[in-house]
Amino acid sequence: METDLVNDDHIGASTPEPDPQLIISTLETLRVFADPLRQQILDCVRDESRTVKQIAALLKRQPTKLYYHINLLEEHKLIRVTDTRIVSGIIEKHYRAAARRFEIRRALLLPGVDGEDADRLDAALDAILNPIRDEIHRAVGQQIIDNHEDALAHRKLLLRRAFARLTDEQAATFYARLEALIAEFEAADSPNAATHPHRLLIGYFPMEE
Question: What pLDDT band is residue 11 in, cutting at 50, 70 and 90?
């Protein structure tokens, strides 16, 4: 990480830009991805490469508390080293997310069987829901989310459950419209001084009677 002494000023670099999408296909990688802190780290290195010290400053944590998580993310190819430099005789690595979007392979959402895969659906749900819970808590605590009655609509937390009985044709139509909305939301991403991070979470599924 940042502990080996060397003499060169610049060791090397890899492709800095993330892939558009990465499919998480193993339970082991899914468990690594599911950790809320590791997802915060991924958020820190989605738009630019950063060192462990820079990531720690953004997350208000000690760098030594992040090395374990950084190593796991790199080991499972969720982040990659984009540059390696020498600072005061110590190796300093720059990390970037391996992809702009991470998706879970559908097979991991199937019912598990006895043994190692029995909890894969739980792991997938944890990977999606636990970080969202933490993000909402932080945003409310920092008053980024404003839930006062007179707050601007786009500053409030929109969190609702809805129920409807639909035909297969109606359900398919709503599914396609939601996918289009997600694509529109992601296409609007434009990191600059005038924009602010937003999170969209959509769950849509058939239920038991």
Answer: low
